[in-house]
């Protein structure tokens, strides 16, 4: 079997877990109001909940709606949340930290987060390549086959996952693929939120039976929440934890629930699903609240005081994650594939770009005339240096429209955030490696767009191409700045008229430097001259009629810009601070590159924050299952679950 069972079983245990949130003093939720601005009080969504699950077992957390199932699961899976978690959570007796989670656990959320344009097999292949890099190609294929077989996905392995817009795997198949992806890294512990939601009774029974068999087969401990299991599904649970109002009302083997209920005077009526009966008597919304209190109190009174167990750190091998180079290679391959398949990411942008270029080229077709000073200002909006059949859009429009196109991949990345979050939490790659791979993949679209713009290759094409690609990349990360850039690039409003500290945007945003650099390249590099001017003739006393050294016999002074590119840029610069006749191209490129780098860095940091941990780097000496964690207390009393905060 390729999905080998780990040599040493694990035991995941949580004791006295509580979860506290701040609510308004009248009991209403805070919403977006900061806790410091209103009078608040504490509310416990969970109180002293304890249970454990070992390798090969499924622990099902049940309870009426609002009982705290999701809160408990998210807390145990070290998800960030609105409140403060307390309790003692351990894996084999050692603190369950983010590092331990990354090395040994995986989660399947209620909403499937899958790459819509990759097939089931492709998604598993990438997951196995990233999480088990030591496998050779044939072994990897066998591991993928094994997962597909275990989860019953062979028949649809070449079907893409799909999403709300494109058809793909069915709901049940998507659930199973999510589980297969979680198992790809061979976790010892799997968290599943409502794995049966949206499935019919038969589908739910099949998924739960599958979970049980997977737990045994890969020797993983599985902890899942479930809403309303049928009798057949309920009977299959190894253990159940039943919550009511955030407190435990029962925890133990499902098979013993009937006897327990009889012992507390709440026997299960004939022909009734014990789970349904338990959930109805534990539901304070529809049952007498005092009865619910009594049921919880009875369970609580039967519990022995919490005991401290010996730490049991075995000698299992730490799963070795992929190195940076492998991560980078796999992510390039995967996202390159997605770029080609996902219309939003690439083709749509290219098509929109060509259409916009054509549109602007037709509007500004007259600006190709070089013999008229009146055409010079419109020419700023459309530079057509090649005079070809497809003169493409120039500095101003390209500067402003192209970044707007960056909004498209930004939207796509926002839609993909859930998937990224899952993959980052699973620790199969580092956020910075993902950002680097994405950046490299984005570069060609800048070049391709520029190719549309300049059909004839020339030495001049390279710098604007780089400027252009940098600008795109920068705005891909900071789309919101687009409007600010449009307003503050020095064309519409001089920076000196903008008050501090807002003025900083006029200098920091890349549009200003994009316009300055590309107009210099387009106007002043090369030896183009423009008609409609005559040199000034000075009289013997040295007095001249024109201070700039030229005048326009057929155009008013306001439309008289000059003969050479430098003269024209000087004329523009007199009114608009974004232009200059000095060669600042290298400096402009540096500013834009710095801006892009800062944006990418912020993006990588934001992804790290989304992931909830610090680094996606499998530790060489795991805190548990390999060596003792020195930070782990010898006598773990109630303490804060550390990874829930930043660690
Ligand atoms: N930020 C919050 N502030 C106050 N109360 C909250 C907050 N988040 C959740 N709750 C409350 O906590 C309780 C538990 O919510 P939770 O989502 O864990 O329940 P659940 O058992 O998963 O419910 P369901 O089965 O309907 O999904 C609910 O009463 C909910 O209204």
Automatic annotation (TrEMBL):
GO terms for cellular component: membrane. The chain crosses the membrane at residues 344-365, 461-483, 584-607. SMART domains: AAA. GO terms for molecular function: ABC-type transporter activity; ATP binding; ATP hydrolysis activity. It is a multi-pass membrane protein. Keywords: ATP-binding, Membrane, Nucleotide-binding, Transmembrane, Transmembrane helix, Transport. It comes from the Eukaryota. Residues 621-647 are annotated as: Disordered. The keyword Cell cycle does not apply. It is found in: Membrane. Its main location: membrane. InterPro entries: AAA+_ATPase, ABC_transporter-like_ATP-bd, ABC_transporter-like_CS, ABCG_dom, ABCG_transporters, P-loop_NTPase. Residues 21-270 form the ABC transporter domain. PANTHER family: ABC TRANSPORTER G FAMILY MEMBER 28, PROTEIN SCARLET. This is ABC transporter domain-containing protein. It comes from Emiliania huxleyi (strain CCMP1516). The lineage of its organism: Eukaryota, Haptista, Haptophyta, Prymnesiophyceae, Isochrysidales.
């Amino acid at each position: 079997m390729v999905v080998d069972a780990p040599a040493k079983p694990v035991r995941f245990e949580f004791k006295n877990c509580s979860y506290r949130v701040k609510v308004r003093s009248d009991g209403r939720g805070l919403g977006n109001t900061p806790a410091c601005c209103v009078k608040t009080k504490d509310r416990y969504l969970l109180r002293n909940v304890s249970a454990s699950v070992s390798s090969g077992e499924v622990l099902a957390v049940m309870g009426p709606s609002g009982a705290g199932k999701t809160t408990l699961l998210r807390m145990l899976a070290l998800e960030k949340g609105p409140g403060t978690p307390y309790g003692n959570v351990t894996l084999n007796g050692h603190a369950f930290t983010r590092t331990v989670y990354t090395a040994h656990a995986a989660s399947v959320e209620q909403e499937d987060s899958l790459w819509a344009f990759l097939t089931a097999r492709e998604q598993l292949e990438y997951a196995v390549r990233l999480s088990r890099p030591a496998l050779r190609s044939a072994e990897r294929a066998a591991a993928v086959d094994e997962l597909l077989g275990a989860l019953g996905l062979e028949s649809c392995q070449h079907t893409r996952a799909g999403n709300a817009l494109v058809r793909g795997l069915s709901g049940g198949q998507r659930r199973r693929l999510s589980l297969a992806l979680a198992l790809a890294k061979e976790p010892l512990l799997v968290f599943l939120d409502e794995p049966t939601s949206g499935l019919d009774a038969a589908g739910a029974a099949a998924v739960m039976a599958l979970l049980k068999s997977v737990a045994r087969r890969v020797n993983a401990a599985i902890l899942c929440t479930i809403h309303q299991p049928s009798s057949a599904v309920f009977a299959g649970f190894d253990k159940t934890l039943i919550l009511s109002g955030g407190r435990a009302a029962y925890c133990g083997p499902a098979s013993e629930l009937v006897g327990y209920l009889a012992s507390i005077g709440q026997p299960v009526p004939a022909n009734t699903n014990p789970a349904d009966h338990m959930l109805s008597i534990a539901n304070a919304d529809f049952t007498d609240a005092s009865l619910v209190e009594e049921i919880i109190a009875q369970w609580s009174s039967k519990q022995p005081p919490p005991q401290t167990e010996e730490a049991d750190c075995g000698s299992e091998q730490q799963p070795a994650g992929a190195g940076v180079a492998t991560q980078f290679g796999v992510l390039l391959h995967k996202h390159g594939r997605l770029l080609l398949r996902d219309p939003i990411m690439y083709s749509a942008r290219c098509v929109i770009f060509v259409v916009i270029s054509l549109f602007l080229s037709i509007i500004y077709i007259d600006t190709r005339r070089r013999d008229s000073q009146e055409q010079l200002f419109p020419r700023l909006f459309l530079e057509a240096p090649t005079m070809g059949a497809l003169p493409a859009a120039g500095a101003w429009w390209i500067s402003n429209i192209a970044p707007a196109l960056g909004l498209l991949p930004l939207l796509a990345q926002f839609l993909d955030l859930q998937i990224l979050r899952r993959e980052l939490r699973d620790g199969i790659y580092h956020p910075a490696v993902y950002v680097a791979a994405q950046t490299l993949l984005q570069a060609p679209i800048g070049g391709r767009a520029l190719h549309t713009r300049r059909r004839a290759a020339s030495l001049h094409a390279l710098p604007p191409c780089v400027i252009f690609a940098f600008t795109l990349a920068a705005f891909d990360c900071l789309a919101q700045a687009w409007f600010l850039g449009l307003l503050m690039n020095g064309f519409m409003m001089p920076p000196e008229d903008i008050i501090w500290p807002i003025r900083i945007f006029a200098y920091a945003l890349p549009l200003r430097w994009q316009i300055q650099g590309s107009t210099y390249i387009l106007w002043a590099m090369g030896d183009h001259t423009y008609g409609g001017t005559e040199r000034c003739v000075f009289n013997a006393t040295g007095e001249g009629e024109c201070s700039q050294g030229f005048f326009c016999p057929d155009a008013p002074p306001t439309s008289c810009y000059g003969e050479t590119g430098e003269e024209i840029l000087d004329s523009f610069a007199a009114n608009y601070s974004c232009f200059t006749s000095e060669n600042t191209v290298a400096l402009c490129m540096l500013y834009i590159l710095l801006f892009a780098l800062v944006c990418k860095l912020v993006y990588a940091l934001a992804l790290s924050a989304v992931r909830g941990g610090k680094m996606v780097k499998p530790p060489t000496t795991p805190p548990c299952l390999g060596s003792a964690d020195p930070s782990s207390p010898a006598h773990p009393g109630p303490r804060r679950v550390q990874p829930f905060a930043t660690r």
